Amino acid sequence: MDSDGDAGGAVRLLEVTKRHGRGSAAVTALDDLTVDFAAGSFTAIMGPSGSGKSTLLQCAAGLDLPDTGDVRLDGVELTRLGEAGRARLRRERVGFVFQAFNLLPALTAEQNVALPLRLAGRRVPRAALRGALAAVGLEDRARHRPSELSGGQQQRVAIARALLHRPAVLFADEPTGALDTTSARRMLGTLRGLTDRDGQTVVMVTHDPIAAAHADRVLFLADGRIVGAMERPTAEGVAARMTQLEQAA
Ligand SMILES: Nc1ncnc2c1ncn2[C@@H]1O[C@H](COP(=O)(O)OP(=O)(O)OP(=O)(O)O)[C@@H](O)[C@H]1O
């Protein structure tokens, strides 16, 4: 590891504190938090409601800025960038998948995948488009509209869209929240495959111990701090740890 301590790190948060609100209503969402997400790793973030998971994702992805501390994404200190610089960094190096798929109903799967790059004025090579759909197992659904796809397939289109520009990190906020069990399992298999096959760095917030068990590592958050980590997690182990945290909350 070099003197910056970021060797191999796709994302690093260093002593990050983030408060929401002002005065007596202020809430410390992240409290002097330091964490590294290694390149090519799949991390799940868990914690009781209000523990700071979404805030962590927003700060790590450059969607929000910490009050103090530094965030480095793919070698770039994004806390030193202005709004335009952060927007460019997000567009070029970050992929985002949310619980809501946010696909446009009038567009086909491949048009939805291409849309963000087209809106940014970039040409989208056909091979890249096909490659992104193939990476999520949907190459045969390219011409289907969202209404002709299952919920799980729609979420995989959203993942293909997030992957098209080959982001350094794919952030996923409750990506299985709106899916049935079978679709959720397939979606998690897709994320797992992206890390195993392509070395894609994935950071996922979830409430579901079964989802978290697909990751290489689970980080547990409470009151804006990391209070534990589990390597090679099992659903049972994660569930037991979450029960402890929720009883303590
Ligand atoms: N815009 C905001 N204004 C004021 N307080 C906020 C705001 N956003 C978040 N908070 C507070 O910051 C804390 C952390 O919120 P955050 O959404 O990061 O938690 P979370 O772990 O993602 O929660 P959940 O699992 O319920 O989605 C909570 O106490 C929340 O109420």
From TrEMBL:
Entry's Gene Ontology molecular function annotations: ATP binding; ATP hydrolysis activity; transmembrane transporter activity
InterPro entries named among the record's database cross-references: AAA+_ATPase, ABC_transporter-like_ATP-bd, ABC_transporter-like_CS, ABC_transpr_LolD-like, MacB-like_ATP-bd, P-loop_NTPase
Keywords: ATP-binding, Nucleotide-binding, Transport
All copies of domain ABC transporter, residue ranges: 11-248
Domain of life of the source: Bacteria
GO cellular component: membrane protein complex; plasma membrane
Pfam families from the UniProt entry: ABC_tran (PF00005)
Record-linked SMART domains: AAA
Name of the protein in its database record: ABC transporter related protein
Organism encoding this protein: Conexibacter woesei (strain DSM 14684 / CCUG 47730 / CIP 108061 / JCM 11494 / NBRC 100937 / ID131577)
